[in-house]
Protein: Malic enzyme
Organism: Salix koriyanagi
Amino acid sequence: MESTLKEMRVGASVLDMDPKSTVGGGVEDVYGEDRATEDLLVTPWTISVASGYTLLRDPQHNKGLAFTEKERDAHYLRGLLPPAIISQQLQEKKLLKTIRQYQLPLQKYTAMMELEERNERLFYKLLIDNVEELLPVVYTPTVGEACQKYGSIFKRPQGLYISLKEKGKVLDVLKNWPRKSIQVIVVTDGERILGLGDLGCQGMGIPVGKLALYTALGGIRPSACLPVTIDVGTNNEELLNDEFYIGLKQRRATGQVYYELLHEFMTAVKQNYGEKVLIQFEDFANHNAFELLAKYGTTHLVFNDDIQGTASVVLAGLLSALKLLGGNIADHTFLFLGAGEAGTGIAELIALEMSRQSKVPLEETRKMIWLMDSKGLIVSSRKDSLQHFKKPWAHEHEPVKGLLDAVQAVKPTVLIGTSGVGRTFTKEVIEAMVFYNEKPIILALSNPTSHSECTAEEAYSWTKGKAIFASGSPFAPVEYEGQVFYPGQSNNTYIFPGLGLGLVMSGAIRVHDDMLLAAAEALSGQVTEEHFSKGLIYPPLCNIRKISAHIAALVATKAYELGLATRLPRPANLVKLAESCMYSPNYRNYR
Ligand code: NAI
């Protein structure tokens, strides 16, 4: 992937440092008082100890009925709370019961968001302890509906809104954010929210949800997370005509105006928070996603989950599958249906891993990977009309239109669906896969479930139980001829929280593709014999904090090896460091 991006950067590499950049963060003097001359205006920031009513209204410190007698006396809380004292465990039990009583996912989502606004630690405790149940509530699929209805469920602003109105003042906007030591920013421009298209300013639900996962699954402190939505307008007619729409009511700005605002934002982030803040681009339309990653990859610590996170999680699944099958990744031939952010991102990381393992040049390993888009197989005769990120995949071959014909022509050992179009892996296609392979690997990655290229049941039954299968959306275990098969879920939440933690704890200043490979290897390393015996190629999500710690450690190791880490000297035990860095949601005792 770096290599594709490298071509777009005209030869620059992630390791080519910007000579003007400084490693030190700007957090010590973010408000500029120290540097301001006397004639300049400064913000009169004060820090005070919260007590009484203010303490109860402060989500970071509020403990609700868990305040002890001593704390109630010391912090002027007498009479502001009913007399019962309830432990955090009991509060958690009560909330879980309440949330389970709601019928609609959106009600559960709203209840969780209200809890986050009221009592941050309790929110995270609940989420961490019940991750498999609550992940779909705070993130996909529910967050998609929440974004669609964001205008009507919007009560209080979350995150930072940077619109075209703020052009020229972005640094000041960043300074309005109350927390100073930011480590991870998730930013969207709302143009391609999940599979739902342009939701404009309402895309804010995505950075908010993603960062909640950074904390819950990767242990990044909530106060170090900043959700940002860049509002350059929307082309969504429904929103433009909605009197309650919360964003800019204009069509999307593009070209120079768009890139100037983005550039101002990227510059201001570095100026305000320094070089070690991770900026994750999220749900940008693919023309901008590739462009932004290529443009800022050599000057900022940037990561795109849709491209790089997906690639790493899918590679991890493939590495696990190979442990089941035996052999080397370079022995395989891949066919992708779908050549967008996910497809080309995954393809590039696989090619890189093949090249690393077999010591064959990347240009050669790419030839083992074929991609199809809506116009058919990507072949050299189409090169001139292809988008730049598809060009490396235009191999010599006669044109092929349909997927079945492509399977018969290419004879892939691995079939991957990243088209966003459901039911495209037909019975004939899957039977062809099993005709050419004893154990075909079939990954139907498109989300949501209705867009999955095939179901788990279809994959197992049409291959007579021979397929190694994983999907983007979850499927229940399938019983086929007396045997139970457990489909894996290729979920990005396996990778990005651990990757982020590894970058933060090593003080990394750039993301390098070797870190994505390391993350994939670390994730695959967490799949045990027991999981393999069920056919699983991913470990269960309930162990996610342990998984994240291992990913973080391997990513940090790479950062040190590449000279991209700034937290020196290198700590001896990086897994231990990762575990000790993780935010704990347990209540603290107040003096
Ligand atoms: P995208 O819009 O960038 O790319 C879609 C690609 O599919 C394009 O190349 C398009 O030409 C092609 N396509 C569309 N219709 C087609 C058809 N009928 N036949 C062949 N190709 C067709 O979208 P992106 O971001 O790459 O996502 C694609 C899908 O992958 C989505 O459904 C998304 O939910 C899923 N995805 C899954 C992930 C996971 O499992 N961890 C992570 C990221 C995305």
Remarks:
- The chain is about 45% helix and 10% strand.
- Residues 10-28 have pLDDT under 50 and may be disordered.
